[in-house]
Design goal:
Elements (H helix, E strand, L loop, with lengths): L2 H25 L3 H6 L21 E2 L6 E2 L3 E4 L11 E7 L6 E2 L13 E9 L8 E12 L2 E9 L6 E3 L4 E4 L1 H5 L7 E4 L5 H5 E2 L2 E2 L6 H4 L2 E2 L2 E2 H8 L2 E2 L21 H13 L55 H6 L18 H13 L18 H14 L2 H8 L11 E2 L2 E2 L15 H9 L11 E6 L4 E9 L3 E6 L3 E6 L3 E8 L12 H13 L11 E2 L2 E5 L4 H4 L6 H7 L5 E5 L5 E3 L11 E10 L3 E8 L4 E5 L2 E3 L7 E3 L2 E10 L7 E8 L6
Helix pairs in contact: 7-9, 10-12, 10-13, 11-13, 12-13
Length: about 675
Amino acid sequence: MRPSLVFQFSRSLVLLLWLLAIAIGCSRPSTNQVVATLSPAEWTISDAPERLSDLGLFQGALADQEPAAGVVAYQINSEPFYDYALSRRFIKLPPGQAAQYQAKGNLKFPLGTLVAQSLGYPTSTTPDAPIRWVETRVLALTSQGWLAIPFVWNAEQTAAEQEVVGERVSLADLVKAGVRAPATHIVPNFNDCKRCHKIANRVQPLALDAAQLNIQQSGKSQLAHWAGSGMLTGLPSGSPLPRLVDWREASGVPVADRARSWLHANCAHCHQPRGAARNSGLYLGADVAEPALYGVLKSPIAAGRGSGGHRYDITPGRPGDSILVHRIQSTEPGVMMPEYGRTLVHQEGVDLIRAWIADMASAENDPTLVGEVTELTPEQLADWVQMAETGGDSSRGEEVLHRREMQCLQCHAIQGAGGNVGPDLATLPPDTTLAHVVESLLLPSKVVNPKFAAVTVQTVDGLVLSGVKVEEGETTLLLRDPVRGDTRLSKGQIEAIEPMGSLMPVGVVSRLKKNDFADLARFVASLPRHKPDPAAGQSIVRYETLDPLPDELIELPAAQVAAFLDSAADLPWRAAFARLSGEVPARELFPLGDSPRAVARAQFETTEPGRFVLEINPGAGVTAWLNGKPVTPGEAGGVQLAPGKHALVLLIDTTAAADARIRARVAPANKSET
């Protein structure tokens, strides 16, 4: 064959192969076409649809947000603040399936459920102006849990594409037109979604609970509409359903209810027993009944720049002196709350919270409370000491210290039971006087052990951290605080370090009754002289309890509980600690709120043979396992222990064991066994 013919043949062959490749490529379904055949229950972030239109949520023009068949638009009672963006919500259940009603927490949804929220802004200040959609947030319930998928709209409003890295959308033209909007709308990235949606270490929807969904539509509850259409099962009849008020409804709704509703919608996803801010001890759910837990005369666990120099989260009658107001009206990183999801101040929300706090009765004139103490003359100190000396009771003081709202054991420990930010109170010098304890409780920064002096660190990125310097080298600094734990910083990250005295906030005892303060002071002063009985063995003092109790454990057969704990990960454990006697009240292991049972554990290690002894008084309502095997409380001689690591698991009936006290200890082995 001649060279020219060979060349022509080769070129023709290449062209033929190229055309064949195009034909094959065109005949293959696109990635989105493949995904469209998958159930949302099977999605991962890498193979979820790339276009919002492929989810089957809308029909007609995408920007009209017209629900497709099988998709339901829904509303909630109390809308959070999204920088003044308008919000529309949609839900799609798998065909033929329904959600299950639950009085507390989110409704229980079937695998494959899609939940969507579109955020946008009016294009002008005229009534009924078209909406410019900027993002649609989608949650899909997969076999691995809820998957967050962010979609960003194009400028033409014809499509929205998946953007796992987030986006910054300019709205400068809307701001110029007088629309209430930020200059730049920040679309969260895939991981940012977890900042708010990660509850009990799992991504979960927000505002899909009965209290939020129980909104009136056409004369009856939205939940009743869902039940009537077959979307919802188990809706109770004949009893009132929980309902969150609309914080915007000023007519006939008490300011306190509206304010609590606003805090619930904007803050309670983090500020709850299983949220990201659980260690703060500030719980802002509308169902929290104890004022100290939702901030009234509550000092922050770790004081810092975020406090604005104020003593309490809420100072009754004085909104300007309340940390809560200081933080929600700020846009400064390290100060503003919520930390994420906004760049503007929600002025209507700030005004509502200020009005609520202003309406609160001031505690300044209550003669039964300790109140605010800013300085002490020798005569005043002597009066406080005399009150503690003559009226204080050490045993009652131990219970005051263990109150959840006091949060003392977040920082301090007693014989190893508690936190490691401040000094172990049992290691105070033996000559510690009652006067020293009283003064330290009232004015914690007056005299501070240099080892526990706190600092405020500002990084070059604008992050502000407060804590105790645990370790400092030439290139790094290890900072410890009771909320974040340990944070290691490179010296190159640090812009400034400032001393701040004690991490214990001023006024932490001011909300106490005076007799409770006297009891607390007597107890702390007695600790340096307390000597445990060596013959009784070593008490187990550190426990963990599941708070809240995961749904899987509510009805799980007792015999399967220990195995479940061994296999489960990322469970919401909360620390609990024994008293000096070695006993822990069973009630202290109960989850916050109503729960038929509690599950707790204690993990400990022995270095030599011993006997494990479990005592429960009264004994009803508690089932126990040691190292996976049932153990009987009060068993004669105890259970023989070899050196090594051990785990005690307790399953507690919260009704039968409401008054029980539990003591677990390791006693010396019998001489014949050593």
